[in-house]
Amino acid sequence: MRDCFQKLYKVFIKAIFPIAFLLGAFNTNAQTPGLGTWSIISTKYTFNKKWSGFFEAQIRSQQFYVDYNYHEYKSGVGYNLPKNISLLFAIGKYNTYQFTGNFKTPMLINEIRTWQQLVLNNNINRLKIEHRYRFEQRFVNDIYRNRFRYRLNAILPINNIIVQEKTWYLSLSNEIFLNNRGVFFEQNRIFIGTGYEINDQVTMQAGWLNRFDNFDNGSEQKKNFFQLSLLLSFSENKSGRKRHPSSVD
Q: What topology is assigned to 2-239 in CATH?
């Protein structure tokens, strides 16, 4: 089992890590001190082969489980197209508070957001690849803005060929954020972690997330987070598709 794990790990790193490294190589600026936390609970319910619904909640802190300054809630509906293609429409509420203290006012950002999403899934042997394209309509402090996001997410099962009950897997993703106001390149996120599918309904995932922000005033910020996700999926077998655990985020 150990030799098998080492071989799979090498394949994963050779195939995916160079891509994420190139996309995030420019993130060389000084980071804000301390390790933040990024907690997610994501719930999906599949109605049939075509339709599904989801709800997701997040809470973030600037230090390790202290100085909570952000929370978000969102929900929406998904629709499956043929050949591992899916669409999603959602709406959410996003609030950012002061960076010290727990939800310390006055609030910095009050945002309502709608978005549409296209996801393409494909496999390279046992490596699962997800391409996610998202277009957002954002009302930030009553100012309207658009944003485009692209995420490349790779999952490599360790002890099974596919992600199924009692499966450990490695996960790596890189996401870029582009907008049409102010600076064109706004944000980059890199995630490296591992997950475990307890059963068909419950998956746990944990890892390291690096977030790079490029602000309109010319300043930049880099921050590391410990991310912990609880992914709940009900009746997903109705979709007729293989499991590709991933938070909506």
A: Lipocalin (2.40.128)
Q: What is the model's pLDDT at position 21?
A: 45
Domain limits, the chain:
2-239
Residues 6+ apart with CB under 8 A from 7: none
How many whole angstroms separate alpha carbon 119 and alpha carbon 86? Answer: 5
CB-based contact 176:190 (threshold 8 Å): no
Segment 23-44, tens digit of pLDDT: 444 444 445 689 999 999 999 9
Which candidate, 132, 130, 133, 176, places its Cα nearest to that of 154?
130
Which own/partner pairs from 117-122 qualify as long-range (CB within 8 Å, at least 24 positions apart)? Answer: 117/87, 117/88, 117/89, 117/90, 118/85, 118/86, 118/87, 119/85, 119/86, 119/87, 119/88, 120/84, 120/85, 121/84, 121/85, 121/86, 121/241, 121/244, 122/84
Query: What CA–CA distance (Å, rounded) separates 151 from 153?
Result: 6
